[in-house]
Amino acid sequence: MENSTEKSIDKSKEKSKVYLVSSNDRAEGSRLCLNMLEMPDYNGKTVLIKPNFNTADPAPGSTHTDTLDTLLSAVRSANPSRIIIGERSGPAVTAEVFEKKGIGALCEKYNAEFLNFETMPQEDWVEYRRDDLHWPGGAFRYPRVFNDVDAVVTTCCLKTHAFGGVFSNSLKLAVGITPRGFSPLHDTDDMRKMIAEINLAYKPDFILCDAVEVFTDGGPMEGTRKRADLMLLSSDRIALDAVGLAVLKSLDSNKAIMDTPIFEHEQMARAVELGLGVTSPADIEIVTADEKSAEIAAQLSKILLA
Q1: Which among 11, 103, 2, 60 has a CA at the least distance from the CA of 216?
Q2: Cβ count near 241 (within 10 Å)
Q3: Non-local CB neighbours of 306 within 8 Å, separated by 6+ positions
Q4: Which has fewest Cβ within 10 Å: 14, 88, 236, 280?
């Protein structure tokens, strides 16, 4: 029986959990991560799933079909009334990316809908405005559907980003919810801060990260490939990206990754300022369920705290 001391624990003191599974099998690793999380009850709810489909390039250039299939299966088992897969690709055409990735078949398999942000009418976009944003005019637009659904779930690929982002993981995934046309984002030194700011528009229930094979240089479409053989999952975007950066450091990534302390990356620092998750490595707990995963987690924890 729970005692009064346990009931009085200050939940705000709890660490953000990042679930880690060592596996070279994306489907198995995803299932094990999801099992540790325990899927939320989506009975009768509408769930929006946001993948990483800038292009149709093989993972980590884009979300692997095995990862998305396993995620859809888990969400469908939680009995939602609707599942929507929403995305805007770029530079590739979104409809072509979805066709190349076989998303139509997955939608049919799991009774899911595909929402192409690229072709949505203007009235389906809303504005997020805040005085301290680095976006021109202090505002950016995003799809209204993020306000209308009951839950958002995202899945990302861990990689470096050669076009100004430095790294791409859960925070960078949010770029796909802005309208097509990168000029406001790519033509400014505030790009990394603006990436973090897009995340104010929504809060995912959890993020599933594919780090089986990663880019340690180049990216986001093609780059230097190295194997980490990991799947990661968290409800905290900053915590997940911090562990992802530790993974890249462990693989001897490029200079921008290796020479910058994890929480000093502009994406991370701005996300902390905005209150999007943990504020330091000490607030992160890497959770595992087997000995090999625990050994890797211990190594990553040392990198995080260095």
Answers
A1: 60
A2: 33
A3: none
A4: 14
C-alpha–C-alpha distance, residues 268 and 274, integer Å: 10
Dump pLDDT digits (tens) for 247-270. Answer: 999 999 999 999 999 999 999 999
Read off the pLDDT of residues 106-160 as tens digits, 9 standing for 90 and up: 999 999 999 999 999 999 999 999 999 999 999 999 999 999 999 999 999 999 9
Residues 6+ apart with CB under 8 A from 13: none
User: What Rg value do the Cα atoms of the chain yield, rounded?
Assistant: 18
- The CATH code that applies to domain 21-236 is 3.40.50.11440
pTM above 0.90, yes or no: yes
Each residue's pLDDT tens digit, 187-223: 789 999 999 999 999 999 999 999 999 999 999 999 9
Q: Domain-by-domain residue ranges, the chain?
A: 21-236
CB 175 within 8 A of CB 185: yes
- Paired tokens of 213: 């094979």
Q: Which residue has the tokens 């990991």?
A: 230
DSSP for 14-39, please give it.
SPEEEEEEE-S-HHHHHHHHHHHH--
Is residue 237 within 8 Å of 50, Cβ to Cβ? no
Per the listing, tokens 């996300």 go with: 271
CB neighbour list of residue 280: distance below 8 Å, 6 or more residues apart: 263
Amino acid present at 83: I
Measured distance CA(270)–CA(132) in Å, rounded: 11
